[in-house]
Amino acid sequence: MSHARKQARKAVVQALYQWQMAAQNISEIEGQFKDEYATSKMDFEYFSELLHAIPSNVSELDDLIKPCVDRTMDDVNPVELAILRLATFELKNRLDIPYRVVINEGVDLTKRFGADKGHKFVNSVLDKLAKSLREGEVAAKKK
């Protein structure tokens, strides 16, 4: 996994958080982040893909997440929710990324941006999602 893609995920979490909290227009947020990260080695194409696709599919993503959480969606920490939405999108739509990479990235992002023990919650939710969304891949890894 490339550093550029890791940077894109980090920026997407920040942008999604901004979108969730301020209900700001996605294109405005995208422009702001492209200016801010102009000199970085971020994968802007991947950043843009995720930033537009996740809000467009947020209801579907939340429907996948809901059965895996032990609380209402309103009670999920907003940063952790942004990370869960990102990882759920990748688990469902980016089969080129191994499920373990998706989970590890989600946990790492939560350790960086989430609540004190939030990474345990995110890990648990993503593990459940991987078993349902990537059933064959998970089963193959266990053998």
Q: Indicate the radius of gyration in whole angstroms.
A: 14 Å
Which spans have pLDDT < 50 for at least 5 consecutive residues? none
What's the number of extended β-strand segments? 0
Strand content: under 5%
* CATH architecture identity: Orthogonal Bundle
Query: What pattern of helices and strands is seen along the backbone?
Result: HHHHHHHH
In the CATH scheme, the class would be Mainly Alpha
Query: Which percent bin holds the helix content?
Result: over 70%
Number of domains: 1
Assigned CATH superfamily: NusB-like
Secondary structural class: mainly alpha
Average residue pLDDT: 92
Principal-axes shape call:
globular
Number of H/I helices:
8
Topology:
Layout: H1 3-22, H2 26-36, H3 44-56, H4 58-65, H5 78-93, H6 99-113, H7 118-133, H8 135-142
Structural account:
The chain has 143 residues and is an all-alpha fold. It has one domain: NusB-like (N-utilizing Substance Protein B Homolog, Chain A). 75% of the residues lie in helices and 0% in strands. It has 8 helices and no strands. Helix 1 crosses helix 2, helix 4 packs across helix 5 and helix 6 runs antiparallel to helix 7. The model has no long low-confidence stretch (mean pLDDT 92).
